[in-house]
Amino acid sequence: MADLFAHLPASKAPAPGRHGAPIDPPGVTIATQDVAVVTVIARPGRAEAAIAGLAARFGAAPRDAAVLTRTETVDFVGIAPGRWTALAAEPSATLVAALEDALGETGYVVDQSGGQVVLALDGPAVPDLLTKLVAIDLDPVAAPLDAAPTTVLAHVGATLLPGGTASAWRLIVGRSYLAAALRLLVASAAERGCELRV
Description:
Layout: E1 17-19, E2 28-33, E3 36-42, H1 47-58, E4 68-70, E5 75-80, E6 83-88, H2 92-103, E7 107-111, E8 116-122, H3 126-133, E9 150-153, E10 156-162, E11 168-174, H4 178-189, E12 194-197
Parallel strand pairs: 2-12
Antiparallel strand pairs: 1-12, 2-8, 3-6, 3-7, 4-5, 5-6, 8-11, 9-10, 10-11
Helix pairs in contact: 1-2
């Protein structure tokens, strides 16, 4: 298969716009999301207390598992025992302050917004795209609807977050890998048409 981006330096992301097959609407839309990304770490032996504090502050208890827990203002993603990624559509300083207030002495908070990026994938071809790229069965029959696994897309580490439908997913990737992730996603979606919005 020809490399769609052979003309670009390896470190450069594809340009925003349409790529691949001229299908309307495109099978896949990829967009960056302007959200705060914060890591929450429970102190040793304090995971239950940390969960209770977060639940009291945000109205839902994040689970100590690789699943997505939605609240009215924050999404929590279990990434390791006693660790979560928190996402919110508000300034990162505001989210950090709210999390620190909720945790008190039960945990730590680290702003990751400068180092991680959230990509929103939508469109009818998204399930097929992810089937090509991840070695995890994401079919609802095999995986819980709230499953949020951390895996790799080729060589790029990513955490997958389910959206509201089977054709909507979000990916959390390291900012230093963003160009590689976008090249991979756009090239893999090209046969069904892809629109990149960054």
